[in-house]
Amino acid sequence: MLIYKKLMLSSSSLLLALCLSVTANQSLADDISALVPSSKNAVDQHHAWGRGLLLSEGKRWGGKHCSGKVQAPRKLRSSQLVLQVETVTQGDGSQAAGTGVIVQMYGEGAQTPMSAYALGTDSELAFSGPTRYRRTAYNRAIEKLTDTETGQHAQTQFLFTHAAGGTWTRELFSTGVTLAGAFTLTRSALPTEAHMAPESHAGTTVAFSILNTVSDLPPEVYPTQGVVLQSYSADGSYVGRGFGPGTIDHHGPYTYTKVSPNVAVERTTQIADVFTADYTMVYTYETPRSGTWYQNFAGGLIVFSGSFTTFDSE
């Protein structure tokens, strides 16, 4: 029994020493991160890297520290950040539902300007240019941006709630507008086999579980729960069928755009017997077959969100 206790103590000490060593030695973490696996058996490691879960990547990319706490990354180099725009608050305090995403891409060098674009939302909300990013607390960070084209300034605050994402808030100083939503962070150079989001939804059926709805409409005129099945074709059309109170059958044209290894944006015109309306939907893939979704329907008339799973239509 004494020998067993000594072995247990030795193992714990070794683990603690390794933990402290990796945390303190950032150059070691950088060296390990440079060893990109190339064999087929390393795909699972690539997935872990995409979510920022490797211990050696903890300080640089974000993840869980040895204490088990979620840790914000020290730097955003060679990464891709997708900001899901969920709310837009004007300077007078009025608030509207957000839509679409802002995609920010960071180069390898510290002096490389960040480039960004918007999809499904106002292009003026995407700033491209020099940034200053720093960690302000264990799981919090702040980034100051200057748009090269307009000279406008903005500041974004990040709260990491898990290893590769969380929530964000951005203040646009020139207009007083505040944006907020969820974000995901991935490495820019992830190999294709490590991506979660597919290149296309053609030939795929998506089962959407409606978990949350926000609207000023009477609750009896729109679905607050239920399941919707939508089957997508290669010709750019889809067919949908609803199951549950307030759901309806519908169809229409769609466009699907993959914006990062695990995020895609769908823009659709929904045609039903009683109306025709546009919507923008953001998919965040957590596995190659499932994840979460956020939809701004008819210009914010209804906001839906929930979980989804996918399967082959045929």
Would you kindly provide a written description of the structure presented here, covering whatever features stand out?
This protein is mainly β. The protein has 2 domains: 79-192; 204-312, Beta Barrel (Porin). It is built from 4 helices and 20 strands. The protein has helices at 2-24, 26-33, 43-50, 58-61, and strands at 63-64, 70-71, 79-84, 87-89, 95-97, 101-105, 115-119, 131-137, 140-146, 153-162, 165-172, 178-187, 204-215, 226-232, 237-243, 250-260, 263-271, 276-287, 290-297, 302-312. Strands 3, 4, 5, 6, 7, 8, 9, 10, 11 and 12 form a 10-stranded antiparallel sheet that branches. A hairpin with a 4-residue loop joins strand 17 (263-271) and strand 18. It starts with a helix and ends with a strand.
Quick summary:
This protein has 314 residues and is mainly beta. It has helices spanning 2-24, 26-33, 43-50, 58-61, and strands spanning 63-64, 70-71, 79-84, 87-89, 95-97, 101-105, 115-119, 131-137, 140-146, 153-162, 165-172, 178-187, 204-215, 226-232, 237-243, 250-260, 263-271, 276-287, 290-297, 302-312. The protein folds into two domains: 79-192; 204-312, Porin, CATH 2.40.160.
Task: Give keywords.
single chain; 314 residues; mainly beta; Porin; 2 domains; ten-stranded antiparallel beta sheet; eight-stranded antiparallel β-barrel; 20 strands; 14% helix; disordered N terminus
